[in-house]
Amino acid sequence: MINQNGKLVLYSGSSGVGKGTILKKLCEKDPNVWVSVSNTTRQPRVGEINGVHYHFITDEEFEKKIAEGGFLEHAGYCGHYYGTPLDPLNEKLAEGKTVFLEIEVEGALQVMKQIPDILSIFIVPPSFEELERRLRSRGTEDESTIEARLEKAKEEIGCRSRYTYNVINDDLDKAVQEVYDIIHQD
What we know:
- The protein has 7 helices and 9 strands; from the N terminus they run βαβββαββαβαβααβα.
- By secondary structure, the protein is of the alpha/beta class.
- It has a single domain (7-183), classed as Rossmann fold.
- The protein has a 5-stranded parallel β-sheet with strand order 2-7-1-8-9, with helices on both faces.
- A hairpin with a 2-residue loop joins β5 (71-77) and β6.
- The relative contact order is 0.22.
- The mean pLDDT is 91.
């Protein structure tokens, strides 16, 4: 089960919206923020480090962890598995950290069912055209992958009303401050 000493934050948005960039700046601003590192079966992108950006594991390892109940949530996304491992999550919550679960919408909806009152934030692109521009400018994926991510983004953006807060990432510093303000209210 989930340790409740810290604060758990569900954090989503479509691919290319700037979630990672916002979180990086948020972590610089607030040393109590810890970002859960998901497991995935996809290959690392250029510059991604195992254990920092993701724990890159095989399909077999992932399926074994599912069978052992080792994930808070898990889902398939664009042909690969993604999941939030429970053990490190509970360790950081026990330390009183503000733990961010940066996960896609399907996994987020699983978490919302388990923890209905979870603080949830959805990062929204300023426009769909800007989202497409950002995805293409990364230069990390082929055309069919970009098209799949854009199709998935339409579905995901349609779920944004399920989240407690929506933050539009049209100005990075403003978006970072808005997320900071949300996690520090109460």
